[in-house]
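The following block was generated as part of the benchmark described in Methods. Ligand: pyridoxal-5'-phosphate.
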Amino acid sequence: MKKHNFSAGPCILPSTVMQKAAEAVIELDDIGLSLIEISHRSKEFVAIIEKARALALELLNLENKGYEALFLQGGASTQFLATAYNLLEKKAGYINTGTWSLKAIKEARLFGEVFEIASSQEANFTYIPKGYNIPKDLDYLHLTSNNTIFGTQFKAFPETDVPLVCDMSSDIFSRQLDFSKFDLIYAGAQKNMGPAGTTLVVVKKDILGKVSRQIPSMLNYETHIAKESMFNTPPVFAVYVSMLTLQWLKDLGGISAIEEINEKKANLIYSEIDLNPVFSGIAAKEDRSYMNATFNITDETLKETFDQMCLEAGVSGINGHRSVGGYRASMYNALSLESVGVLVDIMSELERKG
Ligand SMILES: *Cc1c(COP(=O)(O)O)cnc(C)c1O
């Protein structure tokens, strides 16, 4: 039986995508060769990466607006330093909303002055800070739109003339935003787009080329733009599967269609968390993530029963991150409303038992 996969990442992908990806490993589109044994310069693969880049911009509504989409390697973790390498001349601002923000801050400090503009660390990152001032002389302001570990999500973004850099690893393509407000967006594929191994970077070209330092070729966005995301061998499998997932999303009706489903899933689980005395939410209500719902069990004596019921129903991957504890249900794009329903039914059954 296929399980209900609530994994925080790498995460569930659409079953049709999995099927096609598996077939392509054996043979890509009747060409007599596997996807992973052909040249990345072959016309077949060039068409795949071009399509992936085009779909990313199309879905984000950033076509013909001066942006480039790149599929790079090294994960979002490499982008923590690459963003600073390319953009930080004197000082940058960071909003500290959790583990991933802290890691980004640590890397940026190697390149210049870094100001923590706001933080929710004192409350173990259970909320998104609001009402802070943004100095006008920042090279950029960095945010993490969705905090995968703590289950918080920015619902509104700061209005500022300072360039915005955003780590959207765990909520890209999940909700409609005016993406043109951001100058650079990056996202590891494995949360909402594909398998681990590639990172999407969407960058507005005119913010580049302004720092005085030398940038190594592999970390220089201008290199990758000039070489159309093929400066070196791209991670062909991860790019292919990401392209399939983006095509799946487009066929579904794009971000607006998936946002509707994601809202239903989130409303279903959060209303259960709020109505069921056996559970309590961890994140501040107004900042709750639609991707990762974090919650505790209020009666520890029911924990074993709950875990057993989840196991029996095939509910997988809901243990909380070690720095938060409790539970975390990750509900990325490919997770069905039905799977959330299975979890919610267990939660309400547990209340009747308890
Ligand atoms: C998972 C995650 C990362 C780390 O991504 P890697 O690709 O493993 O480097 C960074 N930021 C956020 C918000 C994440 O969820």
